[in-house]
Fold this protein.
Amino acid sequence: MEENKIAYFSNTDFSLYNFRLGLMREMKKRGFRIYACAAKGDYTKELKKEFVFKEFPLKRSIDFLGRDLIYFFRVFSFCRKEKPDICHNFTVKPCIFATLAQNMAGVRQIYCSITGSGYAFKKEGVLKRIVVFLYKKSLKRAKRVIFQNPEDMEEFIALNIVKKEKTKLIRGSGVDTDRFSLKNVDREKKEELEKEINYSKEKITITLISRLLWQKGIKEFVEAAEILKKRRDNLHFLLAGPVDRENPSGIPEKKIREWEERGLVKYLGERKDVREVLSLTDIFVFPSYYREGVPKILLEAGAMGLPLVVADISGCREVVKHGVSGFLVEPKKAADLAEKIEILIRDKNLRENFGRESRKTVEKEFGEERVVKETIKTYNLAE
């Protein structure tokens, strides 16, 4: 009997490993041969242990006549040779160029997940018009288009990018709530981190973990730190995440060093496992005004029982119930961010209550098992 095959395409191996691992494992259990298709990186070795990894170099910047065209033909060649029964694409370029290539190669079941509309949809202009045009051409070839929040879905329908009957809402990529819990934090790694950051229980630790892009609200986080540190000396602000040199909104490393030298934040770099950082955190902050899907880091922080202070935007407001599990703040307003953080600094009981509610919300609505089941149900709709 011929083996069924499913290929997962994303821009990075990090994306597949951190956001799709549970889904790929479940499909493997169901007898599928799994292809993990992405650019090679730090997570390739881990993916190769469980799946067939196929390298597809990809740059996020638009390059129609160069790398994007090469990427298109590589995907086309792969699909003609391996003949996957299902292709599931994540992130912008795979949803556009891989979808077109898969369709041309004769793949019948193509699924696309819109994990946030991202940089191109931030404002009206030439870039947005180009991306909308490309999405219209590609997504009509998909069997289903999956969205993580209703606002993105409604915008894509309103722009006539995709027909409503082809859409499905599955909120977030899910989180393993057993793994992301205080009982599953490595004690030795936690102690090492405590020494690295000069941790003190006497201080309130406020953390932001994100790609280092201006639109992720990093500047507002630092400004809030500056406001609050003038008022209090018992605060510790932690910043973690990768520097994104490809993105035009990437924050220069020089600027990060400057913030550290001024004593505003402690930068921890990129962390493969954020559980130790979250376990030392009292308040988790995510002031992004980027067009998010449902940020997984919010689900991870919520699963760890943390109060959340986030920008009031699509994706973030799916996770945080204002005044119940955290606070929603006005995007790009450092003063509002500082005000809400300070409320939690003053009130330990409120922090604990919000944290319990965060954990409950994630367990009930964003558990990985539920997301995986809903996604596989979508596959079963295929003819």
Notes: The chain has 15 helices and 13 strands. The CA atoms of residues 128 and 192 lie 45 Å apart. The first strand starts at residue 5 and ends at 12.
